[in-house]
Amino acid sequence: MTEPWKGEVVRRLLVLLTVLVVVFAGSATVPRSADATVPGAIGRIVFVSYDGSAGSEEIYVREFASGSPVRLTNNSVWDGDPAWSPDGSKIAFMSGRDGNYEVYVMKADGTGPTRLTNNAAWDGDPAWSPDGSKIAFMSGRDGNFEVYVMKADGTGPT
Fold first, then answer.
1. Could you tell me where the beta strands, DSSP code E, fall in the chain?
2. Alpha-carbon distance 83 to 14, whole Å?
3. Cβ-based burial of 18 (10 A; exposed 0-12, middle 13-18, buried ≥19)
4. For residues 141 and 135, what is the distance between their CA atoms, to the nearest angstrom?
5. Measured over all CA atoms, what is the biggest interatomic distance in the chain, rounded to whole angstroms?
6. 25: how many CB neighbours lie within 10 A of its CB?
7. What is the pLDDT of residues 17-53, one digit of tens each?
8. How far, rounded to the nearest angstrom, does the alpha carbon of residue 81 sit from its chain's CA centroid?
């Protein structure tokens, strides 16, 4: 498995790249897929928190109406990098649950987790296209960290 810190470096570079694109495009509009995590957009926020009893990070959703976090994942390995689908019905995320970091998707209530990528290299940092038909992700499958795009069902990575 690749060192976890590499994912953090890649994530920070992606955030910086996104900010630069927004600034230089002359647009203050944030893509709709990012709006889903803004309070009020769908009334929920998805986040990662460390579970000391399990010794791993898990994915939670907080409903703003109730204020109570709801745990969506529960296993002894790291689950993280959650990203709402544009319609708020699904969450793409990264997990090491199968012994390797891969991209998964689950329903917004945490049910039906499905592995989308299957590669010996690190795959992670998923991000939905604005129409929800595709998911971009980072992968080390070529020996370099590069951005790939696949259909939302995991087929056709390019």
1. 44-51, 56-63, 69-71, 79-84, 90-95, 102-107, 114-115, 123-128, 134-139, 146-151
2. 14
3. middle
4. 16
5. 46
6. 9
7. 443 343 334 333 333 333 334 444 678 889 999 877 7
8. 4
